[in-house]
Amino acid sequence: xxxxxxxxxxxxxxxxxxxxxxxxxxxxxxxxxxxxxxxxxxxxxxxxxxxxxxxxxxxxxxxxxxxxxxxxxxxxxxxxxxxxxxxxxxxxxxxxxxxxxxxxxxxxxxxxxxxxxxxxxxxxxxxxxxxxxxxxxxxxxxxxxxxxxxxxxxxxxxxxxxxxxxxxxxxxxxxxxxxxxxxxxxxxxxxxxxxxxxxxxxxxxxxxxxxxxxxxxxxxxxxxxxxxxxxxxxxxxxxxxxxxxxxxxxxxxxxxxxxxxxxxxxxxxxxxxxxxxxxxxxxxxxxxxxxxxxxxxxxxxxxxxxxxxxxxxxxxxxxxxxxxxxxxxxxxxxxxxxxxxxxxxxxxxxxxxxxxxxxxxxxxxxxxxxxxxxxxxxxxxxxxxxxxxxxxxxxxxxxxxxxxxxxxxxxxxxxxxxxxxxxxxxxx
Length: 428
Ligand code: SF4
Fold this sequence. Notes:
The chain is α/β, with parallel strands linked by helices. Helices cover 34% and strands 15% of the residues.
């Protein structure tokens, strides 16, 4: 369960740059990208709900009802993991709020939220408490966290589970004799084959305390600082996988049109007069050039007005060549017979885009951007991908060759694929 989904209050979690309360979701969001967190929690920009979130919400509701009552209301996805669930019963803590004394805090800020499932059935005998979070995902093999990640607060899954574990540690009266925590992600696959899998990390209480003190507390201090930023551009951006995760960052356009170091990178990219197409989706429409309206030939009016006089030879209208609006990409293959315009090489487009991104980042080659560059630490990939998505090549047929040998080509082809109507890949 995403804790913020059931936050007990709708009051803002950040007021006038001061964080009032936190959730493990916020920690995860900030870890993923501090600037995206700033947009969502400090500026409180709305985020669209995705279809995947809807599936997750329904699945969670079914599991909650089943585990509390034993009544089988599980849909197809949740049912695939029924064998991995504990026997329903009133002793299970389902949708457990992060309440109790003392509250869970970091940097003096209290946490709110809910835990999907807390199972204390092994507590009295072995000192073990199991904490489970249900995860609905399109592909378990690709998206599931590892055991190591669940135990590491430097990762998003670890932040979440160690946050829940840290709450449990503070509930001494509720969980007496707690020695070890089993942190479990229970995955339900929502596409293709019906599958479920449990990933579980066992950690001693000392480990939880250490992770909280050495990783979470410093992160919250950074969040406090970021919350006070006057502009999004003053908050670090994490260009890279975070920008495309979960269907793409909803703040991408805003992120790219600010005025910071990274913004100026974008500005440099976008404000070039030779880049009219590279505009963020929410950029204002350019003011159209005003011209005198052309007097078109009108069909003969029905009554009083005489038909306009024609002089000279009647105009013949040349039939327009039908133009295709499709974008077609041939990756590592060449069409030998193909209706439509000749396929052009994508190389020129890639070189051009690379040159502009490199220029904007103040480097000769983005792949060698140093740690002092906004493109450093591999962030050039995210920047290049965004530049490609913002400046698609015009409709037509394109050939991308040597993709396996060129990282630049790889990044751009991956970025372009979702926007192309047809993608044909060659196989060896
Ligand atoms: S576009 Fe990327 S860098 Fe910008 S806020 Fe979103 S995730 Fe962060």
